[in-house]
Every structure is written in C-alpha cells, then in structure tokens.
Amino acid sequence: MQKKFFFNQPFSLSRWFYTFLITFSLVFLSSCSLPKFAKPKKVERTTPVNAKERARKNVTEGRGISLKGAFSKGGSTRYEFSTSNPLWRASLEIIDFMPLTTVDYSGGIIITDWYSDSDNPNESIKITVRFLSNDVRSESVKIIVHNKNCMRNENCTISEIDSRIKFELQKSILTKAAQFEIEAKK
C-alpha cells in the first residue's frame, strides 16, 4: 500500500512530529512579549526632539553638566574630602587611641577594633561612628558602642550598650568639629 503524500513527499510519523513541533514552537515563541529592557520607554510630550534642546533641558533640571557651569564659581555641586569635613576629622582625632578596622569616608562610617583597658582585660568595647550628614549637629553623627565580656574559658558575650561613653564621644566629636569649623572660617 502506498503512503499518503504530505507536501509532495511521503507522509511519515516522524515528519508529522517535526512539523507539529516547529509549528507549536513558532506559535509559542511569537506569543511571548519582549523583556522590559528591550521595550522602548515612553517619552513625555514636553521632551524636546532636538538634541541640543534636550541637553539644555537636562542641564537646567540638574541632570547633566555644562562647560559654562563647570568653570564658574558658586556652582551647586560641592565636593568635600575627608580633610575638609570637620565631623570626620574630629571623629578620627577623638578615637585616635583605638585601633581602626574600617574607615570608609565615602560610606560615612568608622569602626574601631575591640579595645580593652589594661585594668580589665576581660572586658572590651568596640565603637562604630556613622555620619548621617556633613552638618555639625547632634543628628549628623550616630555612635554605637558594643561591649564584650569574656570569662576565663573564652566564653564571650557581646551586647550593644547605651552608656555615658556614647554621649561623651558624641559631645567630644561635635565640640571638636565646631572648633575645626570656626578655624576654617577664619
């Protein structure tokens, strides 16, 4: 018996399966949508079409730079380095007797290593200073003090303490930063 013809070729089960698989794949893939990154973004009607006008608009809105603004004094951008930040300098000066483990100016954090006094070697403290702003105010600095008590068998407990050390450090840092700020204005 002769087989039926499909697309001018003998029809077989494997040919039918491949045809079905290709058709199903094309239908399935064509129904998928594009990922978000490949889709074009909606543009507001107020956005200029001309590139020069668009660049000028971005600069006026603060999303770009201009050469005229880069060389003029009194711009809105303020670069501040660790040597010119009074809070940063004051903090480093106040806790200079302690070994430091992390000092990250761009992240705004100083972390000391465990420090113990020679009077009580079983007790240590660790200080974390976080800078929340560059202004010399009490809300600009957050100080966290951890206490570690160790027994003779090296069984240690670590806890955050809210003692006068925290407040004295904050007071000392703010006082020293205010002095640095007054000296810088002179």
Describe this structure in words.
The chain is of the alpha+beta class. It has a domain at 86-185: Alpha-D-Glucose-1,6-Bisphosphate, Chain A, domain 4 (2-Layer Sandwich), CATH 3.30.530. It is 34% helix and 20% strand. It has five helices and seven strands; from the N terminus they run E-E-H-H-H-H-E-E-E-E-E-H. It has helices at residues 13-30, 51-60, 67-71, 86-94, 164-185; strands at 5-6, 9-10, 100-104, 109-112, 123-131, 141-150, 156-161. The strands form two sheets. The protein has a five-stranded antiparallel beta sheet, with helices on one face. A two-stranded antiparallel sheet has the order 1-2. Helix 4 (86-94) crosses helix 5. The longest helix is centred in the last third of the chain and has 22 residues, at 164-185. It is flat and about 90 Å long. The mean pLDDT is 77.
**Residue-averaged pLDDT, rounded?**
77
- The beta-strand count equals 7
Return the structural class: alpha+beta
Helix content: 25-40%
| CATH A-level architecture of the domain at 86-185 | 2-Layer Sandwich
Separation of the first and last Cα atoms: 109 Å
Question: What's the helix-strand series?
Answer: EEHHHHEEEEEH
Major sheet details: 5 strands, antiparallel
Shape: flat
CATH class of the domain at 86-185: Alpha Beta
| Uncertain stretches of 5 or more adjacent residues | none
Q: What is the rounded Rg?
A: 33 Å
Alpha plus pi helix count = 5
What proportion of the residues form beta strands (DSSP E)?
15-25%
Strand order of the largest sheet: 3-4-5-6-7
CATH topology of the domain at 86-185, which one? Answer: Alpha-D-Glucose-1,6-Bisphosphate, Chain A, domain 4
